[in-house]
Amino acid sequence: MRAVLYLINYSIRIMPKMKTISGAKKRFSLTGTGKIKRKHAFHSHILTKKSNKRKRRLMKTGLIDVSNEKQVLAMLRK
């Protein structure tokens, strides 16, 4: 009985870690306070019809909404 419990505990300890989703790793980063940074969309091409104000706003990074934080942290395995 004791050997069986030891084997169960041993197998739990050596199981491999979960990998992070590489797409999320490239798109999101954590701030010092624990919030999640992201880049804005629509700032890669066809910029001639967009105003300077809009392009300037899209250059800056944004934060993930609180309602999506749980899913992003799960993808980052945090």
From TrEMBL:
Residues in the signal sequence: none
InterPro entries in the cross-refs: Ribosomal_bL35, Ribosomal_bL35-like, Ribosomal_bL35_CS, Ribosomal_bL35_sf
Keywords: Ribonucleoprotein, Ribosomal protein
Entry's Gene Ontology BP terms: translation
Alphabetized HAMAP family for the sequence: Ribosomal_bL35 (MF_00514)
Family (UniProt): Belongs to the bacterial ribosomal protein bL35 family.
A Pfam entry, by short name: Ribosomal_L35p
The keyword tRNA processing is annotated on this UniProt entry: no
NCBIfam families, per the entry: rpmI_bact
Protein name, UniProt field: Large ribosomal subunit protein bL35
Gene from which the chain derives: rpmI
The keyword Transcription regulation is annotated on this UniProt entry: no
GO molecular function: structural constituent of ribosome
Any one GO cellular component localisation term in the record: cytosolic large ribosomal subunit
Taxonomic superkingdom: Bacteria
